[in-house]
Amino acid sequence: MKKMMVICALTLLSTVGAMAQKFALIDMEYILKNIPAYEMTNEQLSQLSMKWQNEVEAIQQEAQNMYKTYQSDLVFLSAEMKDKRQEEIIKKEQEAMDLKRKYFGAEGELFKRRESLMKPIQDEVYNAVKEISEANNYQLVVDRASAMSVIFASPKIDISNEVLVKLGYSK
User: Fold this and answer.
1) CA atoms within 13 Å, Cβ hemisphere of 6
2) Is 92 within 8 Å of 62 (Cβ atoms)?
């Protein structure tokens, strides 16, 4: 009889524990696409990236033109002039690589600009998700956009629209 009561008590406790856990789902891509400031910032970064890419390509093109000129003048140049031109070409190619690294490298200008412009928006979304989670006692909120292992999730637990409403972008 004692065993039966212990088993019933454990079953009851595990059922209550399982029911107490609440989960929610968000789609970060969907949320961010519905925030005008994010889209505008993305467009600014895209334009800036294209501008910088054009600068890098112009210098690379200049180095190519220098090389073509060098190739056509090769027979007329002295050894000293050849060395000088080769150094100029190498210097121009290095300048292009340095500029590319400065703009697009791991700690480049584009990365810094993206971080400074996007971080406030992402923090705002994070805070909204956190407030909603605390208010509704969610133990876990999963981002559908980045969770590769989510095969199916019920739309009933998706709080993306709730997050947008909390941020002031009603859907």
Assistant:
1) 3
2) yes
pLDDT tens across 56-103, in order? 999 999 999 999 999 999 888 899 999 999 999 999 999 999 999 999
Instruction: Report the amino acid identity of residue 147.
Output: A
Task: Write out the two tokens for 57.
Answer: 């390509």
Q: How far is C-alpha 123 from the chain's CA centre? A: 14
Tell me the C-alpha distance between 158 and 28, whole Å: 11
Backbone angles phi, psi at 79, to 5 degrees: -60, -40
Whether the CB-CB separation of 67 and 92 falls below 8 Å is answered with: no
Q: How far is CA 42 from the centre of its chain?
A: 11
Average pLDDT over the chain reads 85
DSSP letter string, 44-56: HHHHHHHHHHHHH
pTM equals: 0.68
